[in-house]
Amino acid sequence: MNKHKIINDPVYGFITVPYETVFDLIEHPYFQRLRRIKQLSLTAYVYPGALHTRFHHALGAMYLITHAVHTLRSKGIAISTAEAEAVTIAILLHDIGQVPFRIP
Fold first, then answer.
1. pLDDT score for 74
2. Number of structural domains, the chain?
């Protein structure tokens, strides 16, 4: 299976999944459950267009760290491929322990 994917994000446009390991993490059920957790809680009830999930948030964070690594490398800072992959995985999984907000 081709693990080099491009995701169309509503905020950042096209996001390239940079590593096969990252693709495998995105496909994992624990990560996919972030699709059901709203980042903005109940805001979508007042502003229907304000739908943003932890899944969207994690992909956006991955996009930003990818660009940060690229910028640092362009300025001469040595960042190995292993370091870039590790920081990408770390930022992608920073919300993995989130629990959905529930109103009693």
1. 97
2. 1
